[in-house]
């Protein structure tokens, strides 16, 4: 997969703080790789951000894209004819009860008795599903991801017009994708979402 960075991506990276450049280019490189596999005609399309910061393929609103990184973990998603969101999260070593109550709501009592490590892991899985949903919706944190009901241990669910999937059987690092249940108005050939 190792390829030279896309010229458009290098230009954007040049304006970023030095500490963010490598992370940014790694995320864009993985996204470009997934685009080459799923929508090859869009692999070199410039990427811009909408008013809320959501990445979009310039001139192609019908192909949803999403990028997430946490530390060295990177995840991307592409949806033909769909809005998509992806989130990857490294578990925190310590999770206060107040954060569990905030993000898990009525399910917090199921996680509080767990070991510190398991609490961090389970919160990370729940958070990735919540965050993937608001990324797909294009609202980010203003969409109050912590208010989305994701029961601990869940592998899939629905929130509004979005379906989310946690890749618990495929990833050791908490990773979830969300995608719209309805199509973008376009001439896209059916619905298809891919998460990597």
From TrEMBL:
SUPFAM superfamilies per record: 4'-phosphopantetheinyl transferase (SSF56214)
Domain 4'-phosphopantetheinyl transferase: 83-150
Matches recorded under InterPro entries: 4-PPantetheinyl_Trfase_dom, 4-PPantetheinyl_Trfase_dom_sf, 4PPT_N, P-Pant_transferase_sf
Any one of the GO CC terms: cytosol
Keyword Lipid biosynthesis on entry: no
UniProtKB keywords: Transferase
GO molecular function, one term: holo-[acyl-carrier-protein] synthase activity
A GO BP annotation: lysine biosynthetic process via aminoadipic acid
One Pfam family it belongs to: 4PPT_N
Homology family: Belongs to the P-Pant transferase superfamily. Gsp/Sfp/HetI/AcpT family.
PANTHER family, per the entry: L-AMINOADIPATE-SEMIALDEHYDE DEHYDROGENASE-PHOSPHOPANTETHEINYL TRANSFERASE, PHOSPHOPANTETHEINE TRANSFERASE
Name of the protein described by the UniProt record: 4-phosphopantetheinyl transferase
């Amino acid at each position: 997969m190792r390829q030279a960075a896309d010229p458009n991506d290098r230009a954007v990276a040049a304006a970023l703080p030095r500490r963010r450049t490598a992370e940014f280019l790694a995320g864009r490189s993985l996204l470009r790789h997934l685009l080459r596999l799923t929508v090859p005609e869009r692999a070199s399309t410039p990427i811009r951000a909408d008013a809320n910061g959501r990445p979009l393929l310039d001139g192609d609103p019908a192909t949803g894209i999403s990028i997430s990184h946490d530390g060295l973990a990177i995840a991307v998603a592409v949806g033909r004819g769909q809005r998509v969101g992806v989130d990857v999260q490294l578990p925190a070593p310590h999770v206060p009860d107040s954060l569990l109550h905030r993000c898990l709501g009525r399910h917090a009592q199921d996680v509080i008795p767990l070991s510190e490590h398991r609490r961090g892991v389970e919160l990370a899985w729940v958070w990735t599903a919540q965050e993937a949903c608001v990324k797909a919706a294009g609202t980010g944190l203003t969409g109050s991801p912590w208010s989305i009901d994701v029961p601990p241990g869940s592998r899939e669910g629905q929130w509004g017009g979005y379906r989310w999937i946690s890749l618990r059987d495929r990833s050791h690092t908490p990773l979830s994708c969300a995608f719209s249940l309805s199509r973008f108005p376009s001439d896209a050939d059916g619905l298809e979402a891919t998460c990597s």
